[in-house]
């Protein structure tokens, strides 16, 4: 009999269809936002919109954070509902695991249709495509976090210095309907996480790895632990050094790409098989498979009395840090 897992999210459409392969489906029935019922494991990804009542094995309530510490609001009472918490944000939960890299991939995702054009089998079997361009970046014009501001500043420096040698996608640049179109033709991809926290990385690096594009990466300082040899590091706090890194890649693109390709292929395997939400699910099922069932009720974060003031405090803290970052850049003449 297959194990039953309920994955609760704040989204009205499924996030993880692309992650579910045939071997996983033989062992696990994964339902997103299942209504009630009996489950071996229940996982809340980032948050819930409404309360949930369900039956789950003892030890089988898991919370997985999806946002960086500056954004995610998790009252202690909310986290106390869970048996285990995966989050890079410091907290007082007795069974907290300080890793956070289980976000859904955006490779092949269409935002307007809220669907993916690659299923798991097609994604796993995807061959190395012909690489005709050197560097791409997919970005936005968000600016409310310090790393947002640093990213915007650095991208503008790249645009002024390198011009059409880099292809810029996203707001306010060229629109791309499917993110894979901004990855598959490229040897390298510029990746900027919204934070630089150990153990925290997202689809921003996962997507280029899926598309066989070497990540030029600013984010988790321990990223080599997850993808050894596959990543070129970029320092957001040293724009001149970052420019030098990109210039070197552009001047020796094919040579560097071929040197990194074996590690990139291994990184892709690790991403799909070891660092995905499905791997976490299998590990957690092994931990609770013999535990008895229990009836539980889960309340969303916003149901707790301290949520609003925590959210306000978080916004004020973000605002002050971003203003301080902008002031520091002005003082340096950047």
From TrEMBL:
<dbReference type="InterPro" id="IPR055270">
    <property type="entry name" value="Glyco_tran_10_C"/>
</dbReference>
<dbReference type="GO" id="GO:0008417">
    <property type="term" value="F:fucosyltransferase activity"/>
</dbReference>
<keyword id="KW-0808">Transferase</keyword>
<dbReference type="GO" id="GO:0016020">
    <property type="term" value="C:membrane"/>
</dbReference>
<dbReference type="InterPro" id="IPR001503">
    <property type="entry name" value="Glyco_trans_10"/>
</dbReference>
<comment type="similarity">
    <text>Belongs to the glycosyltransferase 10 family.</text>
</comment>
<protein>
    <recommendedName>
        <fullName>Fucosyltransferase C-terminal domain-containing protein</fullName>
    </recommendedName>
</protein>
<keyword id="KW-0328">Glycosyltransferase</keyword>
<dbReference type="Pfam" id="PF00852">
    <property type="entry name" value="Glyco_transf_10"/>
</dbReference>
<dbReference type="InterPro" id="IPR038577">
    <property type="entry name" value="GT10-like_C_sf"/>
</dbReference>
<feature type="domain" description="Fucosyltransferase C-terminal">
    <location>
        <begin position="129"/>
        <end position="232"/>
    </location>
</feature>
